[in-house]
Design brief:
The structure is a single chain. The chain has one domain. The protein has 10 helices and 2 strands. By secondary structure, it is mainly alpha-helical. Strands 1-2 form a two-stranded antiparallel sheet. The protein is globular. Helix 2 crosses helix 6.
Amino acid sequence: MYRNLHARYGGWRIALICALVIAASESAFAQGPATGAQPAATPVPTPQTKPSPSLESRFFKNILRDQRAIWTAPFNIERTDTKWIAPLGISTAILLSTDRRTAGELTENGDDPSRLRISRYISRGGSFYTTSAIAGTFYVIGRVGKNARARETGLLSLEALIDSGIVTTALKTATQRPRPSVDDASGEFYDKGNSFPSGHSASAWSLATVFAYEYGKRRPLVRFTAYGLATVISLSRYTGQKHFLSDVLVGSAIGFGIGRYVYRTNHDPSLDGDDSPAKTSGMKSKLVPFASPIYSRAERAYGLSLAWNF
């Protein structure tokens, strides 16, 4: 009895810490310096300024800086951070209290092979291998095609993926929550598991957030698509009985927070005002499709048309 209570309420404490980290990070993100965007300050007597180091040259330094900002964020919480802490903490607590019931509902009538198979296929989109391959592809395209935005998107996505991977691995090791398939989905913490939080959800949202901020300002469809795919991938970890809903929520929040931080800290604002083909039209015309709805009342058909211009 004591062990069960300790595991359950200990899990709530862990979840609250996660909420504090994410919420405090949101505050730090808004206030953090954009190291990649501004050149170094030059003393008045100095006639020349040194160029800012490239994202590649400070990639690993940025990751170390990110980790320090993430793990020290709870000590820098301000009153305005309650707008993030309150809803996230309450939502996490509610899901933790209902995890066993919601996970059990999936197995009441036995395992559904079709649902499990489809969920497994969808969840592959959130694996580190898939998301890092997408980020790496954008980086290579940016370097080869001299597309500054694609290059930045690839690098920042990789940075966010590594950051979220470190955070989720550390939390999994600390919480040790078994998967829903273990012990009738009891969901107890500190019981030799690795379910909390969802790493696939964190990876999917890290990648989606960077893409949404890079391309979503001018193309809302990109933002909606990125977040929509991240949501579907995250939920597939629940329907595939790999994670509890609270695992998915916290993992998604971690991914979004880290992706937003990495973008705001390293994004080059000059890309936002440059309409040259080298920085904007290349990705708009080749990688991001033009979308238009298709609807026929006579045939009772509807759909979406995607077109790439090469």
